Amino acid sequence: MQNRIKSTLKNTLYGIRFHVFESILLILLLFNSHPTVLAADTQIDIPIQPLDKALNTLARQTGARIIFSTDLTETRMAPAVKGALTPQQALERLLADSGLVWQATSDHGFTVISAQLATNQTSTLPTVTVSASVGTENQTRVKADTAAVTRSGASILDTPMTVSVIPVETAIDQAAQTIGDVVRNVAGVRTTSYVGTYDALFTRGFVLSNVNNYLRNGFRYINLMQPAHHNVARYEVIKGAMSMDYGRVEPGALMNIVTKQPQAERFHEVRLGIGSKGYYEAALDVTGAVNESATMLYRFNAGTTRQAFIVDDVKPQQHDVAGALTFKLTPQTRLDLDLEYTHRKQLTYVGLPLPDPQNISSANRLLNKFYGEPEATFKGSHRLFTARLDHRFNDAWSVNFGYVNNRTIRDYTNVYFMGEVIDGKVHRYAYPGDQFMTAQTIQAQLKGNLMLMGMRHLVTVTADTSSYKERGGFPSADDSLDPVDLYDPRPTGGASLSAPYDIKVRGSMRDYGIAFQDYVSINRYLNLLAGLRYSAYSDTPTDWSGATDMVIPRQKYSNIDPTVGVIFKPQPWASIYGSYTRSSAPNVNVFTGPGQYAPPSKAQQYEVGAKAEWLDGRLRTSMAYFNLTKTNVPTASLSDPAFREISGEVNSEGWEFEAVGQLTHRWNVIAGYAYIDTEITKDNTPANVGKELSFTPHHSANLWTTYDLSGFAQGWTVGGGVYYTGSKYVNNTNLARLPAYTIIDAMIAYTFRFGLPGTRLQVNLRNIFDKTHYESGSASGANFRVLYPGLPRTVLANLIVPF
């Protein structure tokens, strides 16, 4: 009966989904109205600066919508333009002798393209753009037109996958402290915390691999502590099985963190913060040109943050320092160098035990208790160096080379609960260890823009190789700790907290790949994306010195992963798409028998959706249906519990909706909703088949909005957010479930017009109604062992001073 009801509900929901898509298609075909851009004379005052900056300045001063590719503009300088001019006249002067021209668009804006392309253009290109318009500074707080994570170079509107971009301005508006705070703004993405040291992200039923699924400026990034955030420009999430672009990845999504780059225009800013739950913060951001010709630019970011936390004992503190240099070696050649360092120190957070393991609310009276130890600390550092060389041969062809070296060091002692509470005593054990990890990536990429058989092709060829090495250790000594009182936990100490690391671990892996991708504009209505990647992977045996005598051979495999997408554009501002993507990733340290490595896991996804830009491009909406299946999932061996069998399969399907942009020039909004249905479709344990995946609620939703009150209260901005997370299981047996919760936040800010103009005083109230909620936990069968609560009501005040 339950399965029949579930099937009926699914059919009903999917029927609604297809009716929604039919309605969207009808709207896209019939609706076509955009406001015009005024062509009257405007007082223009633009100094000498890089062309991309000059075009943005022109857009702000005239109210015109100007579309251009940063690949064309970032290496060119623009002359000074001053006087009473129309937008067309100003564009003529800015583009003089640049090899670029402007064209009027169908919505009465302007697009900047190469003169050569204008001469032989015979088909409509996908929009590979950065868009500038009136109110650009406000608009970019919530809406971006492109994402660096998509190597095709196509705009988000023209990309046949779900892409979400969260600018750092939105994170600042929300007083976000962690990456988990940021991704609340992405439909269907939810997090769990790893002993308070970093967030694990779940999307479409799958957790993002900390070694494979995080990128920084498009390069692989080790995410084993909270990433640096004071130098971040935006966060990008692209969902699906994405091996075609980045090789070995788990399905679900990729997270790309894009950092702030040096700017020619001088800018200095200081940020100071203080609040409840131990919060304080201080940060500095400075950028500008080193020389008058602006061919050498710099940027420096530094900050220290004491994160607001559930209990005061943990005291998570992080320091970030980052520097970046840009050298414009020639008008066609650019070199970027980036170096950042992050250090984090705190006590590890154990979570909460449960007086009644089957009654979650029994933990509510323990919210302010700390069950860890003063010696159980986490100390970690991360260093990242990036070098990138870009060269443009002409308006059609360019090449770039990149090198990344990132190193992570962690020394930790985690404390965990052992069993259930017995006679009012909480039993615990310690898990100390250290890790030293290095990863390097070398990449070369060739991009071309050419006409073949009357169709425009954007071609990308990428070759890359990466290596990962790890060494570390942990003790073989007894790991038990003395029990503590449930209602009055006090430190007990113990030899296991400082035992020597006599078991050593060492291992490495390397992969390389080559990918070809072609984005084809067949005609003004139809675009095609097709790509193929060959990847090869090898894993040097992990040496568990002192722990095992098992001989482990080197693991090797190779794989070919395709991507195909079709984009139909009934109007220039709307698209309907379908795509097929695939991914593969190694099952690291998973063995099917003595010395026998498990084969890699594989995944494939089908996605269809629709995207549209409304209100003269200020608001973008998207809706997508996806079906994602992962195979070669390790399951328990029925013959030997020391090994695994690769016979599991899981499926995730559902639909997502997002809206991001401006309803008016003063009213910003970012909203999302996701329905996700997961299922274990194959497993060695028959009882698990048909169960749902853990930490994936059926329903989740988010809404954040801000409104500039300057029309009647000069300088004031108000904002608020609502975040809903549905109930979710904490294990795949589906016997222990966390309840749903809704969190409501608010913000008020005042921007000063005197003294230091632009100075902003902002106050955020997180969890206004002090809702007790649990973000994650673990259980044995139906009995909860530990719960990790979310933040209670928290007040955060920040002062941002530009100078």
Instruction: Output the radius of gyration.
Output: 27 Å
Summarize the amount of helix as a percent range: under 10%
Beta content comes to over 45%
Assembly type: single chain
Identify low-pLDDT runs: 1-6, 8-39, 119-142
Q: Can you walk me through this structure?
A:
Helices cover 10% and strands 53% of the residues. The chain is mainly beta and 803 residues long. It is globular. Mean pLDDT is 86; it is low at 1-6, 8-39 and 119-142. The longest helix has 29 residues, at 2-30. Helix 2 packs antiparallel against helix 4 (87-94). The strands form nine sheets. The chain has a 22-stranded antiparallel β-barrel. Strands 9-15-16-13-14 form a five-stranded mixed sheet. The protein has nine helices and 45 strands.
Give me the secondary-structure topology.
Elements lengths: L1 H29 L11 E5 L2 E2 H12 L3 E3 L1 H4 L3 E2 L2 E5 L1 H8 L5 E5 L5 E5 H6 L9 E3 L3 H4 L23 E5 H6 L5 H4 L6 E6 L3 E6 L2 E2 L6 E3 L2 E2 L11 E8 L3 H4 L6 E7 L7 E9 L4 E10 L6 E11 L10 E14 L2 E15 L29 E16 L4 E21 L7 E28 L2 E20 L5 E6 L17 E19 L4 E20 L9 E17 L2 E12 L5 E3 L2 E2 L3 E14 L4 E18 L7 E19 L4 E16 L16 E10 L7 E10 L2 E2 L7 E2 L2 E11 L8 E7 L7 E7 L2 E7 L4 E9 L1
Parallel strand pairs: 3-7, 13-16
Antiparallel strand pairs: 1-5, 2-4, 3-8, 6-7, 9-15, 10-11, 11-12, 13-14, 15-16, 17-18, 17-45, 18-19, 19-20, 20-21, 21-22, 22-23, 23-24, 24-25, 24-26, 25-27, 27-28, 28-29, 29-30, 30-33, 31-32, 33-34, 34-35, 35-36, 36-37, 37-38, 38-41, 39-40, 41-42, 42-45, 43-44
